[in-house]
Amino acid sequence: MFNLWRTSFIVVVALFFLVACKQEAMEDHVEVVAKEEKVESVEVSFEETIIDMYLPEENSEPRKTLITHVMLHFSSNVLKKPEDPFHVEDIYELFRDYGLSAHYVIDRTGQIYRFVSEERIAYHAGEGKIEGILKYENNLNPYSIGIELLAIGTKEEMLPMLSAEHYDTISSKHVGYTDEQYEALQDLLINISTRQHKLKLDRNHIIGHQEYAPERKTDPGALFDWERLMSGIEN
């Protein structure tokens, strides 16, 4: 009888030990999986999503003034490639060759490229004015960041650059702006405002090229949805 009791006791102890080991192993596994999931869920910083394609220094100059405005533009290589007008390398070459520049370019997928650092003045605004503020007349570049969206405007807006016949060859998918561009632009503007504390995210300070130089420019044009943009950023 004693031997039977001792044998039963040993079996119970062994079973308890096995259960405890199994539970510990399961806890270790859960902990490892949790750590792996945590590593996988680490978000990439916004800065890391931007692709740097810096233009030569002669396409910009050092900045000595505080940034108060952002100017939006549209760009494409529709004259040379109406069937495929949005290669960022083509836009880079156009800027480089014509001595122009912008700080950022946003392609159709929402990918952001940096052509000029914010610490430098880009050549994007040209001649123009903001009513009531003389210091900006023909002089907005030193106070602004230029952002190019790869897009094509309406036929009327594009006529200064290409013929009506040329415009009619363009696919409708290339006209206007994409959802991804609006989302990327909102994120970029919010990100810029964290560094440029004089920049207010409102329609007085986020402007289109056509507002600054209406006699010369038509971008970002009638197809750009300002209400959609500002609904997510205005402060």
Written account of the structure:
By secondary structure, the protein is α/β, with parallel strands linked by helices. The protein has 2 domains: 1-42; 46-231, Lysozyme-like, CATH 3.40.80. The protein contains 8 helices and 8 strands; from the N terminus they run ααβββαββββαααβαα. The chain has helices at 2-40, 46-49, 88-98, 155-158, 164-167, 179-195, 209-212, 226-231, and strands spanning 51-52, 60-62, 69-75, 104-106, 112-114, 120-122, 144-150, 206-208. The strands form 2 sheets. It has a 6-stranded mixed beta sheet with strand order 1-5-4-7-3-8. A two-stranded antiparallel sheet has the order 2-6. A hairpin with a 5-residue loop joins strand 4 (104-106) and strand 5 (112-114). The termini are far apart.
Topology summary:
Blueprint: H1 2-40, H2 46-49, E1 51-52, E2 60-62, E3 69-75, H3 88-98, E4 104-106, E5 112-114, E6 120-122, E7 144-150, H4 155-158, H5 164-167, H6 179-195, E8 206-208, H7 209-212, H8 226-231
Parallel strand pairs: 1-5, 3-7, 3-8, 4-7
Antiparallel strand pairs: 2-6, 4-5
Give the averaged pLDDT, no decimals: 87
- Determine the number of helices (DSSP H or I, runs of at least 4 residues): 8
Q: How would a crystallographer describe the biggest sheet?
A: 6 strands, mixed
Helix content: 25-40%
Distance between the termini: 85 Å
The helix-and-strand class reads alpha/beta
